[in-house]
Amino acid sequence: MLRQSRHVQEYGPTAIIWAAATMVVVPFFWLMGDLLWNGWNHLSLSFLFSAPQNAGREGGIGPILMSTLLVVGVCMGVAVPIGLGTALFLSEYTRQDHALGRLIRASLDVLAGVPSIVFGLFGNALFCQALGLGFSILSGGLTLACMVLPILIRTVEESFRAISRDQRLSAAALGLSTPTTIRTILLPAAIPGLLVGGILGLGRAIAETAALIFTSGYVDRMPESLMDSGRTLAVHIYDLAMNVAGGNPNAYATALVLVGLLLIINLSSSWITTRWTSFNQLPA
Amino acid sequence: MDLIQPTPRITSDSDERAGFRAWLPYPSTEPCCEPVAHIRAENLSIAYQGRQALRNVNLEINRGCITALVGPSGCGKTSFLMTLNRLTDLIPGCQVSGTLHINELNVLAQTTNLLNLRRTVGMIFQKPTVFPFSIRKNLELPLREHGTHDRTVLAATIEHVLQQVGLWQEVKDRLDRPAQGLSGGQQQRLCLARALVLSPDVLMLDEPCSALDPLSSGIIEDLIVSLQGHYTVIIVTHNLAQARRIADHVAFFWSYEGVGKLVEQGSAQQIFESPKEELTAAYISGIRG
Ligand SMILES: Nc1ncnc2c1ncn2[C@@H]1O[C@H](COP(=O)(O)OP(=O)(O)OP(=O)(O)O)[C@@H](O)[C@H]1O
Ligand SMILES: [Mg+2]
Q1: Element (H, E) at A178
Q2: Per-residue model confidence as pLDDT tens digits over B220-257
Q3: Atom 12 (ligand 1): residue with closest C-alpha?
Q4: CA-CA distance, B127 to B206, in Å (whole number)?
Q5: How far from chain centre, in Å, is Cα B120?
Q6: How far apart are CA A186 and CA A84, in angstroms?
Q7: N or C: less crowded end of chain B, CB within 10 Å?
């Protein structure tokens, strides 16, 4: 009796923790299994490179892959420099209690919680209409940049702040100017954080539909410039699944490609991060 | 300790020598420890967020001497050092008042060129703070920042300072490996070399041995002694035996209800053998603190 209750006391919590962990893993494998089961047969090199036909029921996703890469490229190309600059401004040029800094941080926290559909409407009003960019890859990329900036800035700012006070003080004590300190000491030390922030942003951007429907649009032709409308993978899946009868098989195959891309991005980022940190801790 | 060789001193001011001196870590002056004030603080007070940490310090530090700052934790020794190279500017809410001169330079003036000030006043911290890149780049960075780009000059200076801190034999084959791979004592010597590379006039060391084992600590101590006469050295230490061994002058600080004050200053011999203040006598005999 006593032994039994000891038994429960010891193994009860362990069992609950294991159950919780399993409940997280099971849906992941279920989802991957479902995607593989339904999508694998349709996947081929020609699927990746040919144009969609018959509203996407047949053919491939070549132009859609291209549009996705362009939209995400525009997004990261704009978001990374602006994010880095803002993070530097917040961590190096303003004190933690500075009014402007506080205002920027508060707005970022609000922005991070805004639903993507709102970004879509905002991007449509600002980029497509007010700035006259129309439904285009450029509008879509810029809208996504607005959306990923909050996460990017906060992660990068944290990694700047994590650099020890001693390093900053000894840089200053050697008479290094602020720009030199940033270039040689802060930026390299912040690269893992920048990567993590960038990957989080990239993941969010590549999987986005709502913000893009109103900005980069639906057109599934091969884009000829950034001013063309272009359909991304996530929008393609949405359209096939919701609007095209008999579109499911290709929707599955496209989803498989999308999830595959996400996996590659995540794995390579953790690989780069460990490589980076292990280089810096290499014995001399 | 045969690695620590005194460097030939340059006394002539011919053009050729002056060019040579540009990368020589020792200042051109004759080694000396003379009663010539190099640093003069008058009524120097430091406050953090309005709370005074150090009040009305009047202290003269002589050229070429080793001056030890001693006193219990929190009496403002580090704060004092950080005003000498204006690192206090980096600390939010830190205010410094009074006057402070290094030679003729008014350190606390708005117009003081901070980068030049910090080139002439080097500082070593308690924990070794090597930067996360190669040994060579750690030493090149300050030199490049202050206008030396010639590769042969860079290489010669680096070899020279590493010889000076007795690290050359140990690292000459791995100058391009990350500096964090060095041992704690080696890292601290690298930090010393990195400060010497700029040929400062004043060298401040804030408890440079407290994070090190006795052997590395002894090496650093010998190094500091070898600097005597060439640099004006200010060292903060909690190790009174060490202060007694190496210092020419000693300044004793004490914290009165959280406010640090300079209690007594004098030659090391006077402070340790016939202190004027009872507090000093008590502290050095280990009764308090
Ligand atoms: N950045 C800071 N902000 C607020 N107060 C500070 C700061 N740095 C130091 N102080 C305060 O100033 C006083 C003096 O500190 P300081 O570090 O100069 O002492 P110290 O003599 O170097 O002590 P230790 O021997 O422990 O290094 C302390 O009371 C400390 O709390
Ligand atoms: Mg201190």
Answers
A1: helix A178-181
A2: 899 899 888 889 999 999 999 999 999 999 999 999 99
A3: B53
A4: 9
A5: 11
A6: 11
A7: N
Residue-level length of chain A: 284
| A220, A138: one domain | yes
Distance in angstroms (rounded) separating the CA atoms of residues B222 and B168: 16
Q: What is the DSSP letter of A158?
A: H
CB under 8 Å to B285, separation ≥6 — which residues?
Answer: none
d(CA B222, CA B216): 10
Residue B206 CA: which ligand is closest?
A: 2
Residues A127, A53: one domain? Answer: yes
* Strand pairing report for B51-62 and B202-206: unpaired
Q: Which residues constitute the domain of residue A231?
A: 45-280
DSSP annotation of B176: T
B49 CA closest ligand 1 atom index: 4
CA distance linking residue A155 with residue A161, whole number of Å? 10
Which residue's entry shows tokens 């144009």?
A: A51
B123 torsion bin: left (phi>0), alpha (psi -120 to 50), beta (else):
beta
Q: Are residues A148 and A161 in the same domain?
A: yes
| pLDDT single digits (tens) A215-246 | 998 888 899 889 999 999 999 999 999 988 88
Query: Which residues in chain B have Cβ-Cβ distances shorter than 8 Å to A171?
Result: 131
What CATH number should be reported for the domain holding residue A82? 1.10.3720.10
For B105-122, write each residue's pLDDT tens digit: 999 998 999 999 999 999
Residue A162 sits at the chain B interface (C-beta within 8 Å) = no
CA separation for the pair B47, B63 (Å, rounded): 28
Phi, psi of B176 (to 5 degrees): -100, 10
A192 and A69 share one domain: yes
With 0-12 CB in 10 A as exposed, 13-18 as middle and 19+ as buried, what is A266? middle
The total of structural domains in chain A comes to 2
Is the ipTM beyond the 0.85 threshold? no
Q: B181 and A282 in contact (C-beta within 8 Å)? A: yes
Q: Please state, in angstroms and rounded to a whole number, the distance separating the CA atoms of residues B124 and B196.
A: 10
Asked if A189 is an interface residue toward chain B (Cβ–Cβ < 8 A), one would say: yes
What stretch of H or E contains A20? helix A2-39
Q: Does A14 lie in the same domain as A151?
A: no
Question: Scanning every residue of chain A, which has its alpha carbon at the shortest distance from the alpha carbon of B86?
Answer: A173
Whether residue A21 is found in the same domain as residue A89: no
Say whether both A74 and A92 belong to one domain. Answer: yes
Tell the residue nearest (CA) to atom 11 of ligand 1.
B53
Confidence of residue B1 (pLDDT cuts 50, 70, 90): very low
| pLDDT tens digit sequence for A34-74 | 988 988 888 888 888 988 988 888 888 999 999 999 999 99
